[in-house]
Design brief:
It contains 4 helices and 16 strands. It has 2 domains: about 10-55; about 55-260, Trefoil (Trefoil (Acidic Fibroblast Growth Factor, subunit A)), CATH 2.80.10. The chain is of the alpha+beta class and about 290 residues long.
Amino acid sequence: MDQNVKLFRTRVKIGNWNQERYLEEEAMKNYLEKKVRGDLITQREDSLKRQILKPVSLSVTNDGRLHFGDVVMLMNVGAETRERSAVSINADIYSVRTGPAPSIQAPCGVSAGRVQACTRTAFIITSVDGSPEGSALHFDQKFALKTTSGFAGGFYLTSDIQTFQKCAQMSRLQEVSLEAGNSSLSWWKLAHFDPRERLEHEGQPVPANEKVLIVHCKTNQALAALGHQVLWTTYGKEYEVTAHTFFDSHKAEQDENHWIVCTSDAAGNKLELVSNTQASADNTDSTQMT
């Protein structure tokens, strides 16, 4: 038989055409069902961002101090190679508990992301020693940092001693995460950023919107944002957050450990106060250098 002779017309279906058509119809059916339920990955990401990026009003400071019960944002001052960033909930679509009242599940990671007062970056200064809400927070006084209730879950910023199995993803330093329970692993304290003035400020009220160290009580390691360890998250390029104290040649903590506990001012300027505070901190640094 001549091999050039066509045995079938072009419209004749060959192979497993019926099975392939059935699988295509099933795939389309599953896609439409997920779309109706809102279970598509793009829909879940949009829903997550709508919830977690909702604006949050930071507490207003009338006396210029931090208080228990204040809603604050933890902003790293940044450096030449690292932008300013805020401690943020690093939740993805697989970290969210579905249901009538969706919320983030613990444990959940944190990262240093965009400076924006929202559910993702808001923390509540919580007493662990019986201090009443509204009382001033003092240097070297223990406290906890809790996320807001609702979608953010009311979880506590927690850390523990670095081990081979439990450490930061990129740097392998001491891990920082969000946990459901409040224990001694969730206790922190504030210290003056300048070691030469630290002793005289011990026990004094902590001023809001000024540079401080956030130190983990159990391990005595300072909270740090690592500019050389970049994480690509659902929210874009961010930095890894660990508990590790970085010293310079003079045994002073470096800018990775310098944070501003941000509040709103009485005039209601919100994050405009952060810009003013940063400019003031930069001027202070340049004055000290001269």
